[in-house]
């Protein structure tokens, strides 16, 4: 695991985008189209903005890329502005110039959610697997919507959201009552199959989760800690999110070198 501590959110976005661009170019150099795993929420927005800058400068081309979102709410119409299908369309597909038919989001409206989960895993596999997965982390340590006690080898499936996650996400809705209670999320086993993982986090509200995921034991109570078992996981955070890290000075020295 690599931990990079940045000064600003803009720097976090630029650092994460540089990682994504590096993987993308390496994949494209082999003649294959890149497959990117994309997250919703606030954390990756600076990464998407930095990717757009690289595209506008002509340094990156994602027009042939495929993308797979991590998760989707269950019980929210797909046309709802906060459905992840819509959020990904607004924040990823349109600004980064991806072809809409190559951007995939789990089908939270499916009547058979178990089948929808299995189909999603199969679609990722058929696309050749995710080359680089962009991740945020919940204040309770979730990645995707793998809430605490998710199996570390779980596959894409329905997960009930914790009250904490619903409270955290209430800012996107007019009240907490509107926040769905369930989601369809890539499993931890699914996420771990991505060839590279890049997790971004900012702010003191993420400090405990970052401490647990980087320096805590690998355990289902902090689902993101499974990334300690990934051979290419990069954690890009600001000073506030790094506040509880025991080896913060060590990571800072590595970040500066
Ligand atoms: C989003 C996702 C979640 C978020 C996490 C952090 O697709 O899978 O794991 O990354 O809830 O959300 P923000 O970035 O809004 O704090």
How would you sum up this structure, described in words?
This protein is an alpha/beta fold. 35% of the residues lie in helices and 17% in strands. The chain is built from eight helices and ten strands. The strands form two sheets. It has a seven-stranded parallel beta sheet. Strands 4-8-7 form a three-stranded antiparallel beta sheet. β2, α2 and β3 form a beta-alpha-beta unit. α1 crosses α2. It is globular, with a radius of gyration of 17 Å. The two termini are 16 Å apart. Fructose -6-phosphate (F6R) binds next to loops.
Name a few traits of the molecule:
257 residues; alpha/beta; three-stranded antiparallel β-sheet; binds fructose -6-phosphate
Shape: globular
Q: Tell me what portion of residues adopts beta-strand conformation.
A: 15-25%
Ligands, deduplicated:
fructose -6-phosphate
Helix content range of the residues, please? 25-40%
How are strands sequenced across the largest beta sheet? 1-10-9-6-2-3-5
- What would you call the structural class? alpha/beta
Largest sheet: 7 strands, parallel
SSE pattern: EHEHEEHEHEEHEHEHEH
Q: List segments where confidence is low: pLDDT < 50 over at least 5 consecutive residues.
A: none
Distance between the termini: 16 Å
Average of the residue pLDDT scores? 97
| Rg for CA atoms | 17 Å
Q: Give the total of beta strands.
A: 10
């Amino acid at each position: 695991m690599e931990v990079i501590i940045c000064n600003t959110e803009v720097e976090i976005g630029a650092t994460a985008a540089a990682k994504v661009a590096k993987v993308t170019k390496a994949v494209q150099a082999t003649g294959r189209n890149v497959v990117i795993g994309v997250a919703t929420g606030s954390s990756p927005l600076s990464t998407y903005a930095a990717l757009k800058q690289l595209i506008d400068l002509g340094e990156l081309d994602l027009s042939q890329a495929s993308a797979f979102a991590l998760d989707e709410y269950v019980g929210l119409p797909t046309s709802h502005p906060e459905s992840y299908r819509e959020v990904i369309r607004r924040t990823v597909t349109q600004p980064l110039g991806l072809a809409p038919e190559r951007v995939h989001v789990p089908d939270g409206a499916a009547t058979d959610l178990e089948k929808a989960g299995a189909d999603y895993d199969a679609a990722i596999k058929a696309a050749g697997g995710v080359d680089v997965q962009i991740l945020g982390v919940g204040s309770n340590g979730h990645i995707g919507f793998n809430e605490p006690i998710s199996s570390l080898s779980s596959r894409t499936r329905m997960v009930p959201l914790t009250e904490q996650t619903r409270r955290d996400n209430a800012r996107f809705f007019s009240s907490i009552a509107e926040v769905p209670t369930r989601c369809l999320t890539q499993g931890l086993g699914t996420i771990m199959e991505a060839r590279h993982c890049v997790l971004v986090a900012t702010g003191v509200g993420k400090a405990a989760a970052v401490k647990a995921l980087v320096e805590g034991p690998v355990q289902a109570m902090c689902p993101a800690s499974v990334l300690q078992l990934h051979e290419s996981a990069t954690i890009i955070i600001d000073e506030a999110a790094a506040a509880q890290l025991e080896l913060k000075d060590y990571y800072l020295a590595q970040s500066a070198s």
